[in-house]
Known about the structure:
Number of helices: 5
Oligomer: single chain
Strand content: under 5%
Helix content: 40-55%
Structural class: mainly alpha
Shape: elongated
Order of helices and strands: HHHHH
Low-confidence stretches: none
Number of strands: 0
Amino acid sequence: MKSRPTKPGHITTDNIFEDLGFSAEEAAELKIKSDIFLAIRRAIDAAGHTQRDLCRILDEHQPQVSNLLNGRSSKFSIDKLLRFANRQGLKTTLRIQSAPAPAAAKPRTRTRAAA
């Protein structure tokens, strides 16, 4: 018996937060926050900073540094993350462009398992 190739069960966008069902506005904010957070974490990992180093560099208390190192991005505003990026010597830019017109929603497809 031949097996059929599987097809994706849903269509994805370039923003995982939209795919998870967040509104366009929430998804945009979460994507920006995530991008900043990941850049900060990469810089920390590349530099090999300790928590003590980061407390001094970021001018932050240890519990907040711990939150940062443990991936708790919800504990930080975009403003705070931008300050952290700046204090690590990261250059930040923001690019705003017109969004393409929304495409008509396509129905989800389901795949059937071979019997």
